[in-house]
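Private note to self, pasted from the team thread so I don't lose it. Backbone tokens:
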């Protein structure tokens, strides 16, 4: 049983997510350590698939590096709205199948048996292919998801076939996904059984988190790693033994500005328990109820969440407009300058001027 102070637990979590002073060199290294990177079109500043690597690598990261790693080098792969490290592919593939589908989705799939065959035949004949190039021959329409989806059933069918392991995303044209048969997209993937896949995924997830609650549905680490106690916490924790071994080799902290979809923020209960940070994205709140802003980015200083940045990219004026830097805990002069420097670096990475810093 490892007994950790809260400071040690936070340092382990920060370092596992590559948010300490020792910056990684490229986007593949980032994904291998922090795990899947969420893909989301929300670009108040920049999409999450770009700001997540930037917050680790810094100014030298370019979007083209991500595209190259996915489409040319095949060191990353896209699946279910995330970019995964390539070494995760055997584990992810082993879990695919109808067992991942909801009952209602299985019913929809069975009712569209002919449509499924049509889509697979078109992908086999002409893939890689865009969803817009495939005819909608569906027999039954699915629920509309309260307006989130169009009436075209092809994208939904492709996403379902992705979960069953029959098709895969192999690239993008802008925001549009290019699809191919999974066996062509990822040939020669080693076969492993589901139990082994789950064990390996649990270990890799713990590596990504450093420390996590064993029963957390967000982290999914199960009994991987070793048991730990954290000072002042009654939770039962699991900790990565390699993270424990590296505790004395501390490169120090820095300022990091995190996209709201960053993996560091995903496990909200852990965020509250270890960091005393109750993060709520206000994206879907009425404007009058927002405190920190529509798409505020949390600010990490060292191993504490100290503030939130309310800023937006004005593409027409080519400026990053800072509406507010909310100090949840008062910054000292050095901290404020470090935060301002990181915001200026963000503007430089975006290729725009920064206005509103004060």
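Design output:
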């Amino acid at each position: 049983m490892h007994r950790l102070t809260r400071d040690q637990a936070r340092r382990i979590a920060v370092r596992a997510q590559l948010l300490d002073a020792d910056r990684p060199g490229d986007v593949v290294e980032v994904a291998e350590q922090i795990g899947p990177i969420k893909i989301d079109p929300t670009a108040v500043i920049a999409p999450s698939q770009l700001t997540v690597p930037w917050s680790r690598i810094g100014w030298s990261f370019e979007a083209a590096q991500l595209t190259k790693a996915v489409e040319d080098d095949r060191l990353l792969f896209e699946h279910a709205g995330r970019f995964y490290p390539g070494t995760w592919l055997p584990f992810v593939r082993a879990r695919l199948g109808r067992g991942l589908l909801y009952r209602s989705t299985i019913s929809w799939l069975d009712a569209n048996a002919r449509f499924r065959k049509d889509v697979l035949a078109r992908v086999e004949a002409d893939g890689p292919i865009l969803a817009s190039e495939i005819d909608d021959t569906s027999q039954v329409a699915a629920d509309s998801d309260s307006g989130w989806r169009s009436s075209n059933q092809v994208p939904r069918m492709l996403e379902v076939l992705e979960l069953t392991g029959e098709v895969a995303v192999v690239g993008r044209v802008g925001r549009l996904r290019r699809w191919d048969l999974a066996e062509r997209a990822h040939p020669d993937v080693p076969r492993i059984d589901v139990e082994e896949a789950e064990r390996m995924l649990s270990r890799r997830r713990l590596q990504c988190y450093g420390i996590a609650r064993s029963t957390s549905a967000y982290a999914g680490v199960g009994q991987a790693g070793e048991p730990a106690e954290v000072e002042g916490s009654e939770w039962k924790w699991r900790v990565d033994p390699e993270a424990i071994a590296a505790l004395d080799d501390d490169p120090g902290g820095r300022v990091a500005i995190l996209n709201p979809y960053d993996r560091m923020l995903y496990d909200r209960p852990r965020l509250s328990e270890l960091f005393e940070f109750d993060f709520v994205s206000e994206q879907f709140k009425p404007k009058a109820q927002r405190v920190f802003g529509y798409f505020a980015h949390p600010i990490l200083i060292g191993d504490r969440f100290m503030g939130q940045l309310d800023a937006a990219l004005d593409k027409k004026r080519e400026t990053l407009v800072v509406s507010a830097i909310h100090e949840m805990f008062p910054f000292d002069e050095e901290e404020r300058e470090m935060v301002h420097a990181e915001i200026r670096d963000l503007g430089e990475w975006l290729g725009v001027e920064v206005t509103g810093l004060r």
